[in-house]
Amino acid sequence: EKELKVKRLQENPLVIAMDKRHPLASKTDISLEDLNAYRFIIHSSGSTRESIDDWRKNNFIDLNVHMESNSISSILTIIKDSNYLSLVSQSTLFHHPNIIGKSLKEGPPSSYISIVYRADHHLTALIQNFMTLIYSLKNESI
Predict the structure, then answer these.
(1) Global pTM?
(2) 3-class DSSP state for residue 68?
(3) Residue 49 to residues 14, 52, 70, Cα–Cα distance (Å)
(4) Rounded CA gap, 118 and 126, in Å?
């Protein structure tokens, strides 16, 4: 919609999430064939699920989906200390040191963390300061 403004903050790719002791954790490159031996737990709905479904459909990928959940904390709890895999946004793993994310060369396209606001509404000083702070933190982390 033309009245919405979108400011991208950072890329947030979908990664293969696994326990840090998972058999695939030591591999540098993970292929689609590597995934065939493991069961997945994936999102039951939402934008992450839509990205996964589009990627699977467009690339004729059949994952061994054993469970679905609408809770990222449930997904990460099940992955921890198991051989389950999942596809999650890389940013969800930030505070989970026992779970790692691995890129997949043929993986789903990245999403982005963004600020979205209406161009036709006045931004208060508080919102402007918040956006300035977010951008300054983004630039410091680069």
Answers:
(1) 0.78
(2) strand
(3) 11, 5, 10
(4) 15
